[in-house]
Fold this protein.
Amino acid sequence: MFRRSFVICLLSLTVLVASSLTTASEGVQKAAPFRITSGDGSTLTLGDISGKIALCFYETRETKERNRALKDELEKFMDQLSDDEKSRLFVLPVVDCSGASKLFLGKWKDSLVTESKKAGHTIYGDWDGKMRNDLSFVRGDANFALIGADGSIVYRANGTIEEKERDLIIRKVKSLMGKETLF
């Protein structure tokens, strides 16, 4: 009896540890409305990107490189698209700035502006953590969400996204664009 309980406990622990590495969810759920602000004061809401497929990376300064492989693969995919197809996608990098001290807000904002210039697109800050909470992103982790043109969350994951999941994400983006079917 003790041995059986021990084995069940060990298996449960293994599943728990494995699931904590990358947690992905699929299905249709409407994205909660959000309002985020860039370092230069520009705001963005869910309504602003309505009609576009959003590739949302929600990260911290410490986790921004964790899913570099996914970012590189998506960039390579987008390089193959026509300008019209590219216009249907919206890269949405968001940094969790909710822990920023008021004393250092200026430095955080300056950093977002600098990093936006390097990246070639605006990086937004979630200054109050509301987007993180409303979209069920994991605090202190690298998060990714694929948001359909209708505002539905098609795919969400946190942690390091492995190759198999990266391939699935690319297929889902293609499917949302009408370029490929999933099955």
Summary: Residues 2-23 have pLDDT under 50 and may be disordered.
